[in-house]
Amino acid sequence: MSVEDIASLISGPGADSFFEKKGEEELEICCKYSWVAQNISRKVKLREGEIEILTNLLETKFADHAKDYWTENDCITRDLDHRTVGEWIESEICFLAGFALWFREKEKDGDIDLSSLVSEAVGQKMSADAQIDFDRKRIELLAELPSNALSVLRDMNPAGKLAYRSMDMAIIKGLSEGDDDYAMDMRQRTQKNQKPWWKFW
């Protein structure tokens, strides 16, 4: 980032809550990640221990996470003119919580248990599991959070709910494309119950 970009970033609305200056002779700007966790805890009901875990995760892991997923050719890919850094971080936390919770609920003995998902889709008891190609490293950021915290964070804004639901839809779409019987059963089931979500396929 240029000097002008940095100056704009640290002087924007609410920037003093997230950035702090260190040192007297040389300007060193640091991020106060604990503020993000505190701000989130004012919006949703996290337990005291969960807030502590989230704060620690942000302080120790988020900088590396942002470097891996928020930059390209050493340039930040997030639009910081229209959303603050804090808003971007909160959205990322919600988004990842949706994916992390989905995998935690479905994972069993190293495989993804899809039995309940498929059974609900086709309207009869089914047994199904799978290995899913997914960037699991990205959701490792929240691995230490308990399921209750992931559920609360997922529901904090639409990004988390979208991430969670998109996994269900991707799995069902994949199964239907590979098996015509599955597809027909799912269409009949959703039409009968007047749940047109299959039309998004």
Provide an overview of this structure.
The chain has 201 residues and is mostly helical. The protein contains ten helices and seven strands. Strands 5-6-7 form a three-stranded antiparallel β-sheet. The two termini are 41 Å apart. The model is unreliable at 182-201 (pLDDT under 50). It folds into two domains: 1-31, no CATH class; 32-200, no CATH class.
Give the secondary structure arrangement, pairings included.
Elements: H1 3-10, H2 15-18, E1 19-22, E2 28-31, H3 33-43, H4 48-69, E3 71-72, E4 75-76, H5 85-106, E5 107-108, E6 111-113, H6 115-122, E7 129-130, H7 136-139, H8 147-154, H9 158-178, H10 180-192
Antiparallel strand pairs: 1-2, 3-4, 5-6, 6-7
Helix pairs in contact: 3-4, 5-8, 5-9, 9-10
